[in-house]
Design a protein that fits this description.
By secondary structure, the protein is α+β, with helices and mostly antiparallel strands. It is 19% helix and 32% strand. The longest helix has 23 residues.
Length: 518
Amino acid sequence: MSSTFQTASPSLQKLDPLKRVNYTFGLVLGVEEFLQSDTYFLAKHYLENRLLHGYGTVCGLDVTVQTGLQLEVQVTPGWAINPKGQEIYVPQLMCVQVNDWLQANQSALEAALPGPAPSTLNLCVVLCYRECKTDVVPIPGEPCQTQSSSTAPSRIADSFELMLCLDRMGSPPLGSPPLGSSPSGTPGAGGLCEFRPPQLEDDAIRAVAWLLSQLQVSTTGPFLTSEQLVQLVLDLGTLGSPPFLASPPAGPPYAVHASDLSQFRRAALRTWITKVRPFIAAQQGAGPCCPPPERCVLLAELYLNLNSGWIASSVSVDDSLRPFLIPTRLAQEFFIEDPEAATAPVAPTANCVGITAVLGNPIAPATIVGGGGASGPYTFTATGLPPGLTMSSSGTISGTPTATGAFNYTVRVKDSAGNTGTVTCSVTVTAAPTAACVSITAVQNTAIKSATMAGSGGAGGPYTFTATGLPTGLTMSSTGTIAGTPTATGTFSYTVTVKDSAGNTGTVTCSVTVGGAS
């Protein structure tokens, strides 16, 4: 149960895991028949574990660091399944004194890491399956045999091996643990475990789960096709052969129609099972769909800060890459409670806002509010707004319209998860307020008959008026009445500014001629 233990396992090279003993009357039973029977049922059991459930920590096996007089890494009791499908049971708390381990392995570490002593060292905690032959009993033998040759173990006990390995990837020989150059799967030179266990399938499983999570129901494209999704899954196992088809839409996330989501998930998982998983198994040195020879499983990574002389001053633990298995019951309950498992995501939307728009007048800023989807914050874009009006990313419409008419515009809403939805709104830009010029008979030094202008358009009255350019002696009241006594002759152009009830303004240019006195 320490890092110095060596793997002990029976030789089963002549035994076929696909054959079981056909017990018939008169069959002579020898050791090989019993071994064959064990091999068949153990292989079935391991295969079921591995192919139907996977591998990783099942219960317990928490990795912690204890600080005190010495730095100590502890592993709590628990169960795991290794990549071969074998159960590994750790019945009691296990610990290792970090600096004692460093001193015991200093020569091997210096050989594996040439150059100046590092200031940091990355290790990993690895749990492996092993078997131990136990319960020695006497066996019949020839005369004059020694005691050791006349006894044999009568039981094979499941056991385990906990090791600290260098946290680095490599191409170790097949048959695990991947520990240096020994073809038997034992530690490399000096007893140092030089490589972490490969996790090709676990990495690929995480990748395909992440890919499926990036399929987002949307009402706007561009949309991912089933063929493009299959290609993305194949690329996870480097089975793709680009250019297999047109590149997928920009992503992740990838937009799909709500009606296609279930079909796409089936296509992705079918491709994973039928093509990618067998390919990955072959890459691990096993036949297609066969468990790999790896017998170890990663529990955690350790990051050591070192002082001079290979003395650790601190240790931190990261078990985020640890493979683990959850019970079917927990997966069932999670599925029942997960609202997203039963319903497709609802596209985000927004409510249209009322806008009073008058030509040439700045509108009062109006903000659209998003809702639905994966919740806010929401971002907005718009197309089709009247010339002169714009929408900010926060949904605020502002500006000064430069054309009249009724305009339909489309708002695109994006939620915090990148899901998008659209809503169509409308705005009408009315003409600016105006007024009709009035006819005035004007004679120098003679009071005119007052004339009143009438406003129209815009947001309606009451209207107010101002004027510039009237002949000297004439004035306009705020109600639009022109009165007074002109003191100069000539033809005068004057500009009237009309303001409606909402404060919108418009201008009109008129003229008046002042004649001389007779």
